[in-house]
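Hey, can you fold this one?
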Amino acid sequence: MKVIDVSEHQGIINWEQVKGQIDGAILRVGYGDDIASQDDKQWKRNADECTRLGIPFGVYIYAYATNEAMARSEAAHVLRCIKGYNLKFPVYYDVEEAGTEGYAKQAAQIFGDVIEKAGYWCGVYANLNWWNNYLKGLERFTKWVAQYNSQCDYVGANKDMWQYTSSGSVTGINGSVDMNECYRNFPGEMGGTSGNKPTPPPTNPTPSGTKHKVGEHVVFSTCYVSSSDPNSRAIQAANMARNHGVITSIKVGSKNPYLLDNGMCWVNDGDIRGMYGANAPAQHYTIQAGDTLSGIAQKYGTTVSQLCAWNGISNPDLIYAGTRIRV
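Sure. Predicted structure:
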């Protein structure tokens, strides 16, 4: 699929001319924190025109986050802008700002958790160098890889879109434009939804040979990219944006039969640690040297404030190795 990504830097686009030349567009909503003055100046017009003309689109935000509050604010920025629009491509987190390398992976996990909790598909955009050196372990997300080359050399999982040039030409756009090859039919997968992941039915019979059923919200310790991946390819929950998801389909007879959140990952009965939510039995964790409450919260699908409340912690920055806490 031929996809362009645009921002205010392309000026006023003639989308009627553009329509017949592309299969979709990724529109910038803005950059950084949730401040209206940081909205992309052409965002609303671009989104309205794509909507009017039936051009499938997704969005991206240019990230500056170097802490949890900034990452959450950037997610809020996106959610404010896209409210009411029918997305047919994911929400992408654009990480490339110099000086953010050390926090980019954690920021993406926090951002993704907020976006997906709101029901949207989330992806991460970065260049080949960042994917290979700063973002390892983000198998949780669909990946958009930038490499201006005759081929994309990224060999990691979930490479669904490749930005191959910033000097493309499309009639209806003055000047150059970023061009992308999308390997995944997002509009087809998202179908008639409003850009949100479909809500699974609340109940379903448990297929023969499995312990769980569609609609259950489960917590997992490890997961897999595909239903047939061997144990050697297991992904630790600590490397995911969150360690829980809703079973949306079951592939009976597969090694990893449970698909979570329509594509987040696959798990099997041995990976599932229990049910997620208020009625799930209490779990505990022993703090290790180097742990942070925010990291523990991400690993166990909760929040820092909830951990503090459960465990009587007054200073979230002061925790001790060896302490057993409820998670």
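Residues 105 and 313 are 26 Å apart (CA to CA). Let me know if you want another pass with a different chain boundary.
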